Amino acid sequence: QVQLVQSGAEVKKPGSSVKVSCKASGGTFSSYAISWVRQAPGQGLEWMGRIIPILGIANYAQKFQGRVTITADKSTSTAYMELSSLRSEDTAVYYCARVQLLNAFDIWGQGTMVTVSS
Amino acid sequence: DIVMTQTPLSSPVTLGQPASISCRSSQSLVHSDGNTYLSWLQQRPGQPPRLLIYKISNRFSGVPDRFSGSGAGTDFTLKISRVEAEDVGVYYCMQATQFPWTFGQGTKVEIK
User: Which of A53, B38, B64, B109 is 20 to 30 Å from B50 by CA-CA measure?
Assistant: First the structure.
């Protein structure tokens, strides 16, 4: 059974970048998409974007356009989310999730805490 | 962007009693392919979200049948027929019909 395993917690300075990975363990991405969602402390869920690894096509939320890049390496079944120009408001848990064929997020990674602090 | 509005934001429930959460979208969630990509997720404290319901009313694998989803167009409902202790958490509706995909604010279900 496929699991999504994310990279570990990060502490970053304002203005820097962070790159979080999400590896499919026990399987591959196949033809599914991978989405990234973040959750600020005590807040709700916020969709950032998604990628279809087999096509290499990514879509982003306008809010993050220009600051976020989502990529995927099919050979290792690993997706990446890179967020640049970090500010304190980007402090959040970042989740990857598999998007099944009916656009529902059926498998979630464990989350990666990113803290932005000077 | 499509705005998803959930009510109530908090729902204290007695064990064994039903609970209901409403989700309203600012525009129709019917996709051009005829599907309505509305799902419900549960997030227990300290856990990642978990898929409960997809495409309005389809229970995901392993989800107890006390959870049910209904609705159409812009109005959707998640019902828990008899709340159990393990159902405590925050519930989110989510639309994946139109980019950017968006979530409701979340509804906290707690035991009275």
Answer: A53
